[in-house]
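Hi Q.,

Before the meeting this afternoon, I wanted you to have the pyridoxal-5'-phosphate prediction in hand. No need to reply - just skim if you have a minute. The sequence and ligand are here:
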Amino acid sequence: MKTIFEKSNGVDGIGVCDVELSGQCIPSELLRDGNIGLPQLSELEVMRHYKELSDRNFCIEKGFYPLGSCTMKYNPKVNELLASLEGFCNLHPMQNDEDSQGALELMYNLQEALKEITGMDEVTLQPAAGAHGELTGMMIVKKYFELKGESNRKKVIVPDSAHGTNPASAKMCGFEIVEVKSNDRGQVDIEALRELLDSDVAAIMMTNPNTLGIFEERVLEISKLMHDNGSLLYYDGANFNAIMGWTNPALMGFDVVHLNLHKTFSTPHGGGGPGAGPVCVREYLKEFLPSPVIKKEGDKYYRDYNLKHSIGKVRSFYGNFGVLVRAYAYILMMGDNLKLASADAVLNANYIKEKLKGVYDLPYDEPCMHEFVLSGEKQHQQGVSTLGIAKRLMDSNCHPPTVYFPLIVHEAIMIEPTESESKEVLDGFIDTMLKIASEIEENPEEVLKSPQKTPIKKVDETLAARHPDLTFKE
Ligand SMILES: Cc1ncc(COP(=O)(O)O)c(C=O)c1O
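Predicted structure with the ligand bound:
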């Protein structure tokens, strides 16, 4: 049989040994008899190609990344080192408990740490992202009411500032979504909430601080109202970086919580990489968690599959194990300094807010938590929308903030600096934002030419949205 790895130009990037296959085991019509046309490139050329592609990416190691609601904090390299230890990365998920004690111990300890940080009573590490955690949590809420004989509870209340995944997750579980308004201080309007309550309400989904970066001061009143109505409270932990060690969702009265390990606990995210959205619950919801939960008896760790009312598995095996190792490494490394990280994240956000307000509109002029939302309305009227400001920032080695979210702010610019950055970086960003505002006043046409320094310059957004070209053609 002819080898299928013939070289056309003699360049050899990989060593593949010639394989003599017996023709008998492969049907003759499937046998290839010609060169398969693999690219003829040397290892060096391949490396240059991928390096060039990775250089085009913007990442936190390259510049400031104030992407609101995403907590793009620095991911310490020690996390990577620990996750690549052979015992962790070569362990097969089907290995038995006896031979996986180290991994199970790590998962158990992480569960315990998350319990302490959230104040909740039990944890599943299975969900693979925040939105997946929301879905898991809402499945638990649904089953809880079904078993209580209250299947009539079909409504889930969601504030108008909520992240889109909240109503989407509840809807996927079959709930009907009811929106509650924010008041003029950017917090849930309690009077409006009171009017929405009836015996069909299953839960409210909230994040605190909310997506405006404002702490819901009346959260205890809200939780009392909900519980008095026989309803539950779901805590979206995407904004947890603001409160670590200062308060927790159990103290605020929440029943179910998800955390985004890939935000608060410094594991990589963006670009569709694996994440982790553990769900933590109060005592009375323990038996509803997806199984297995990692337990300990004496000095042995084991996977407990016997949860009485489990909603079943929500992911293969036990979640994104490598991400769990990284998050645990971060928690151990930080210890009590987690509290300081939140304090610094809040301080950094308030510092930028105070320097930019006035030049940019600040619709909710309140002390903020780890992020805040400006409006580019004034600049829009001068000829450059928020999108134009975001593109201009890209020419200053800065990732744009989150834009046009939350929906209740016109021309929203949502800035989250995180605790990772120095004062010099924050000052550099402030100067750039102020410069862009004066450029817009003087010469909006020039600003609209950005981005000019990125690998791909200004794109035709309408064409891209209406006629996306999703295939690769030479
Ligand atoms: C407030 C809020 N909730 C939920 C999510 C969903 O999290 P994930 O992207 O991990 O699915 C996000 C993500 O940005 C968020 O900002």
